[in-house]
Amino acid sequence: MLHTLKRHPFGVEAFFRRSLVLTYAVPEQVLGELVGPGLQIDAYDEWGFVAIALVQTQGLRPRGFPRWLGRDFFLSGYRIFTRLLRPGQPTLRGLRILRSDTDCRVMVSMGNLFTQYKYSLARVEVVSGAAQLAIRIRTPDREADLDVTADLGGPAPLPAGSPFRSLEDARDFAGPLPFTFSYDPQIGKMVVVKGLRKAWDPQPVRVEVREATYLSRPPFARADVRLANAFYLENVPYAWKPGVLMDIP
Description:
This protein is mainly β. The chain has helices at about 30-35, 105-115, 165-170; strands at about 10-25, 40, 45-60, 70-85, 90-100, 120, 125-130, 130-140, 145-150, 180-185, 190-195, 205, 205-210, 225-240, 245.
C-alpha cells in the first residue's frame, strides 16, 4: 500500500518566486542507461540534455488547499529531457527525475512518500539582488553540491560550446516540460504527471558555474558534458495534476 502512494496521488499547486535552470548537453548514449524502461532521450543532433532546476518555491500544497497551509522551500532538481512513445497516440515530451534536493525536512519526507523523485536534505544559501543571483548548495557526501552565480542584467547569448544553433532551439530545452515521468516497476507502468503553468517566459542569462559535483560523477565523469543554456524567470504560478498510469511499449 505504501508503494502506491508514490504515484503522485493528488494535485499540487505552488508559486515559483524565482527559477534558474541550467541545461547541460551530454552525449545521447551516456544518458540512455539512466532513463529506464519506456522512455527515449529527447535528443538534439547527437546530444541529450540534463537540466538542473533551481527553484525558490512558495506555498506548495495540495491543490485547492488554502495558501497558509503551504510550504516555502528551495528545490534543486536534476532531470533528463525524454519522450514517452505511445503506439497509436501522440508522443509525450517530458522529464525523467534523477534526484531532488531541498532545504526543508518536511519536503524530504513528503516528497519521498508521494513521489519517486528521490529527495535529499541540503544546505542552501541564496543571495539575490536586482542584477545578480548567487546560489550555493551543499549535500551529503558532496553528491550534488552546486555553486553558481547568474547575471540578471540583460539578455545573454548561448554559452560557449553550446550545441544549439540558436536561442530559439535552446528555449525548447529550457524546462519545465508538460510532463514528468517515473516508472513503477511493480506494475510495469509509467506514472505521468502533467504540469500546468502560466506566463512562462524564461530569459537567457549568463552564468558562472564554479562547482556542479553531480556532473563529475559516473556516468558523466568521463563524458563530454557542456553547459548548453541557462534561463531565468520570476513570479510564476504552477500546478501539477495527479499522476496517471500509462502503458509503455
